[in-house]
Amino acid sequence: MSQEIGEKTPLFDEHVAAGAQMVNFAGWQMPVRYSSLMEEHHQVRRDAGAFDVSHMCSVDITGPDARAFLRVLLACDIDRVSTAGKAIYGCMLNADGKVIDDLITYFFSDDFFRCVVNAGCREKDLSWIRSQAASFHVDIRERTDLAMIAVQGPSARDKAAVLWTEDEQQTIAELKRFNAQCIRPDYMVARTGYTGEDGYEIVLPATEAVDTWRALIGAGVQPIGLGARDTLRLEAGMNLYGNDMDESVGPLESGLSWTVHCKNTERQFIGRTALEAQKKAGVSQKLVGLLLLDKGVLRHDYPVSTNAGDGIITSGGFAPTLEQSIALARVPADAEGTCTVSVRKRSLNARIVPYPFVRDGKACND
Amino acid sequence: MSNPTDRRYVSSHEWIKDNGDGTFSVGISDHAQSELGDLVFVEIPEVGTEVSKGDAIAVVESVKAASDIYAPVAGTVCAANEELHDNPELINSSAFADGWMFKLEGVTAIDLEALLDAAAYDATIG
């Protein structure tokens, strides 16, 4: 299991030395768990955990047209971020209004933005971004020289403070949620994450990754694998590209309407025309949460039968915080109440619920 | 954990033990539970089910994934470990004893002897 082929992050040797079970994820050799996935999940909900997310790709968009370019490239309105360090989450769509990727874009100055994109989409994203940039004065740079470490959990911000000088700590303590600061050249601290807990995502020079990782572990932050990262994000109701949406669906049927900003009618972003036509015709599907009422575990691709027709589970699993199985499912727009899910030869009952399921350590549904 | 020598194994990580009363307990090895991680659900076969060697007759689900469990030999299911419905983690904590999954009867000695002994199974998991 530990001999997989794939790229290595700067922390690869640390994971192996810690006894992690390694898997290939999006072409990278990543730790899926160090010991018990369940304990790692609870560790993040109750205390603090560190994730190596160096497989994710930072793409710096610089130059005089950077903002003008992002106005067109992204379905979210980049003009909503105008104070240095502010971040915005949204989708990059193709002309048909389908999702090429979801990403966070950080604003630092009108000629410097940073997009963080999914590892599995790195190559197609870069080629798409470059192909769309032809008529803009922008420079697009993939930052393979940077690593990324997330520290998440109710104690994460306190425990991560060991990484910084007192002045830096002061700056970072003032960060509001979904804001970032570059505290040194090529060293960015963002109050963002993918777990539903408070904490930071730190983008830093790859050469500093090992020392930073060790300092976090030394401060009592436990290493957490991709397995718990997935159960944490599912409980937090956060989409996973490739599971919950891809180039066969749009944001409106993927629970991402809130990230699509059409208010500024002047802003002709890629995919806008297709989305407006879709809205006019009526969006036929929606992404919902499912709580499994029977025993068992919901999984990706299981068929769902609702009052309004058939649907499919896009992400499913066991939710350690809730001690029951949950899922995200794409179902007809009028679906509500209880539904059934086909699991092998059985038909299990589930309830359609809003999500997130868990936020800041607390269950959101009764 | 070393694999007990009082039973036989298959390379898909199930064990089968002669209980001496005409019944044979089946479970998964400690190595298998360790690879799967925390188990959260077990689907065990109904009593009376007739199985052929290699049939997928049970499912163990970890947080991450569902895995089939195969019948190591032919026989008829004569008991199922109902404890696993409420406590699937018994397989994690006691794969070779309390975490047994079901019992077979009508097993032939020749089928059993064709399976791996503890040393041969050890060799397969390196």
Give the full name of the CATH homologous superfamily of chain B: RNA polymerase II/Efflux pump adaptor protein, barrel-sandwich hybrid domain
Q: Count the DSSP helices of chain A.
A: 9
- Assign the CATH class of chain B: Mainly Beta
- Termini of chain A, distance in Å? 39 Å
The amount of helix of chain B comes to 10-25%
Low-pLDDT stretches of chain B are none
Query: Outline of chain B, from the CA principal axes?
Result: globular
CATH superfamily of the largest domain in chain A: Probable tRNA modification gtpase trme, domain 1
Low-confidence stretches of chain A: none
Task: Note the main sheet of chain A.
Answer: 6 strands, mixed
Q: In percent, how helical is the residue content of chain A? A: 10-25%
Major sheet characteristics of chain B: 6 strands, antiparallel
Structure description:
The complex is a heterodimer of chains A (366) and B (126). By secondary structure, chain A is of the alpha+beta class. Chain A is built from nine helices and 21 strands. Chain A has a six-stranded mixed β-sheet with strand order 10-11-12-9-3-13. In chain A, strands 14-17-16-15-18-19 form a six-stranded antiparallel beta barrel. In chain A, α2 packs across α8. Chain A is globular, with a radius of gyration of 20 Å. The two termini of chain A are 39 Å apart. By secondary structure, chain B is an alpha+beta fold. The longest helix of chain B has 8 residues. The interface between A and B is medium-sized, with 20 and 14 residues.
